[in-house]
Amino acid sequence: MSRSMRLSAIIFLVLTNLLLILFPDSCCAQEYDFQMRARGREVTGLLIVEKSDEGYTIGTIMNEFGIKVFDFTYNGKKAKVSNVLGPLNRWYIRKVLNKDVTFILANINDKKDVTVKKRSMKFYDNGNIVIENRRFKIQYTLSINCKSHETTE
After folding, report:
1. What are the residues whose beta carbons fall under 8 Å from the beta carbon of 82, sequence distance 6 or more?
2. In this predicted model, which residue has the larger pLDDT, 55 or 95?
């Protein structure tokens, strides 16, 4: 990844956090700590989700160093994954990610446990959300990033 891409990712993160701190009620971005496990491999980082002016849900997943893993858009029915990191940029991986992100975004606002075919989502009292794709043995864990939602009074 080029230096300018890393710098732009860091600037994006800093600006997002600054907006959340300065204007917590007017900014509709949500930030989650993100963990994805699949077949002995693990990706951890941040998931940033926001509603666009057109009504789409847009988001990005990046690791702790600011390197983007992938972006996504969700139109209320279907998710589209884009800008996928090199090792994950295979048609069959993008297909699974599209379906998993669609499942997550379609059910996350209900705040109740749900199982559809080989995918399940569980909400825990500590704020964690665990999503499992049992067919491909993938587990996603989301937890609200409290640091981005803290405000000083």
Report:
1. 70, 71, 72, 73
2. 95
